[in-house]
């Protein structure tokens, strides 16, 4: 039997295909997230609807990758690092799918804030989202390189996101006090800030899962000074 026909070669080819699909899913989720945030920043309803429609492709890739991974587990019976990678992919696509869901929620908030307030410029949502986007991109690069290096950087970026989130949340509270007639619309902006911060959490999850995939050890980043509930 030629090497191309061996079970080992078939497993390697299927792994490569799954890796490419996962990276495509990440890229689409990042694009969707940025589109949603820009729609809210600009109160662009057409852009928000475009972001909403993009979720179908994220969901399709989620189901397709999950199906391929389950087929590999059933038919190829991977072991060791192969098994860790397939298991990691199954966990990562859940995080990516949640990024898509949160992006949908942000796009829907665009429509609400545009109707209720007609402005969203009292917080710099784009500044917060730019750091979150970098976290997603860095975590995807860790997966692509199959490297555990990068978790510390992503953890630092997570701290930046948390600091900005608290700052912008306080700014929104101040705006609500100054403009009580717009408190409902501003409360939707608070939720959009929260959704954006949650995307950062999923990016960190992905990085932690990549470290497990590469090393076999689960390293979870714990905030030095977690904010009290």
Short descriptors:
single chain, 229 residues, mainly alpha, Methane Monooxygenase Hydroxylase, Chain G, domain 1, 6 helices, 81% helix, elongated
Return residue spans where pLDDT drops below 50 for at least 5 consecutive residues.
Answer: none
Outline: elongated
CATH topology: Methane Monooxygenase Hydroxylase, Chain G, domain 1
How much helical structure, as a percent, in the residues?
over 70%
Radius of gyration: 20 Å
What is the average per-residue confidence, as pLDDT, rounded to a whole number?
Answer: 92
Total beta-strand segments? 0
In whole angstroms, the N-to-C terminal distance is 62 Å
Order of helices and strands: HHHHHH
Instruction: Kindly give the count of domains.
Output: 1
Task: List the total number of helices.
Answer: 6
Brief summary of the model shown:
The protein is mostly helical and 229 residues long. Helices cover 81% and strands 0% of the residues. The radius of gyration is 20 Å and the shape is elongated.
Itemize the secondary structure elements and their pairings:
Layout: H1 7-42, H2 45-75, H3 80-116, H4 125-145, H5 151-178, H6 183-215
Helix pairs in contact: 1-2, 1-3, 1-4, 2-3, 3-6, 4-5, 4-6, 5-6
């Amino acid at each position: 039997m030629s090497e191309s026909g061996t079970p080992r070669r078939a497993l390697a080819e299927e792994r490569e295909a799954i890796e490419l699909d996962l990276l495509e899913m990440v890229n689409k989720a990042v694009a969707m997230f940025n589109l949603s945030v820009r729609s809210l920043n600009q109160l662009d309803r057409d852009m928000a609807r475009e972001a909403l429609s993009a979720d179908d492709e994220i969901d399709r890739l989620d189901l397709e990758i999950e199906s391929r991974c389950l087929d590999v587990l059933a038919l190829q019976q991977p072991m060791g690092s192969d098994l860790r990678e397939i298991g990691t992919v199954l966990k990562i696509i859940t995080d990516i799918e949640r990024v898509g869901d949160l992006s949908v929620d942000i796009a829907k908030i665009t429509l609400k804030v545009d109707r209720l307030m007609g402005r969203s410029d009292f917080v710099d949502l784009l500044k917060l989202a730019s750091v979150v986007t970098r976290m997603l991109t860095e975590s995807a690069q860790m997966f692509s390189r199959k490297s555990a290096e990068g978790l510390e950087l992503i953890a630092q970026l997570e701290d930046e996101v948390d600091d900005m989130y608290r700052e912008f949340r306080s700014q929104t509270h101040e705006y609500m006090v100054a403009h009580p007639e717009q408190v409902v619309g501003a409360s939707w902006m608070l939720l959009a800030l929260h959704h954006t911060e949650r995307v950062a959490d999923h990016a960190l999850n992905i990085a932690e899962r990549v470290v497990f995939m590469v090393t076999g050890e689960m390293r979870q980043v714990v905030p030095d000074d977690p904010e009290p509930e």
